[in-house]
Amino acid sequence: MTITHRRSPFGRALCAMITPFTEEGALDRAGAAELAAHLVAEGCDGLVLNGTTGESPTTTDAEKAELITAVREAVGARVPLIAGIGTADTRHTAELALAAEKAGADAVLVVAPYYSRPPQEAVAAHFRAVADASGLPVLLYDIPGRTGTRIEPETILRLAEHPRIVGVKDCSYDLLGTQKVLARTDLAYYAGCDEQNLALYAVGAAGCVSTVANAAPRHIAAVLDAFDAGDTARATRLQLRATPLIEAMMDSGLPGTVTAKALLARHAELTRS
């Protein structure tokens, strides 16, 4: 039996790609291009750039655009590129949306404004303004553990009426809230926490945006492949087999960016030796 999922406009197994830097701290364009090509060859059917794992709070606007351009040149039109553009400032976020569109992104990923902790009506107004600023589709990024502000399910339901707001990257840890939105909209939901990849996929999510895919892209994709093939037992085994790696990368007291870069650096050393 093959299981048919709701639409996955940006693919299913997406990688939240790290941003490589040189020893001097400059953006490593060649390294980014090489990593992006490797991830696509290893089964990622979409890449998220300039997100949490991509260290977006610490990169300049020019570096963000340059990264998109470098990756687009490396992978061509083979996979969609989603650009993180979230800031605490609506005007700045809208400017980044236009810059991402010019650089070659296929969609943008937008967090709730952080630090200021706006009420839900202001959160909704922020997202609508950003969605109106460019022609790119918008993925809402619900990650209250980082922003301090939840995008409440009722707010997401209202935002789903906007023609360019097409999906959600879900790091809310609110399974009931997620299911409420899945049941009442056509939004493409992507699990943003690797331990929830299979659980959310099983209730209708479009796929996942995985930090762990930096280190194990084929394995992350294989979980979803098994589920789509109707082999839910194998999907479960594969998800559980990934649990020690997920724990080591995401629950070790270090940010996933740090652990992902450490594993990739170690892989490069082993490859050279």
Shape: globular
CATH architecture: Alpha-Beta Barrel
Structural class: alpha/beta
Poorly predicted segments: none
Task: Estimate the strand proportion.
Answer: 5-15%
Name of the CATH superfamily: Aldolase class I
Helix content: 40-55%
Number of domains: 1
Say how many strands there are: 8
**What are the secondary-structure elements, in order, as H or E?**
EHEHEHEHEHHEHEHEHHH
Q: What is the rounded Rg?
A: 18 Å
Just give the CATH class.
Answer: Alpha Beta
Helical stretch tally = 11
- Write out the strand line-up for the largest beta sheet, numbering strands in chain order: 1-2-3-4-5-6-7-8
Protein model, in words:
The chain is α/β, with parallel strands linked by helices and 273 residues long. It has a single domain, classed as Alpha-Beta Barrel (TIM Barrel). Helix content is 48%, strand content 13%. It contains eleven helices and eight strands. It has helices at residues 29-41, 61-75, 90-103, 120-133, 144-147, 153-159, 175-184, 197-202, 217-228, 232-250, 256-272, and strands at 13-16, 46-49, 81-84, 107-111, 138-142, 165-170, 188-191, 207-210. Strands 1-2-3-4-5-6-7-8 form an eight-stranded parallel β-barrel, surrounded by five helices. Helix 2 (61-75) packs parallel to helix 3 (90-103). The chain is globular and about 55 Å long.
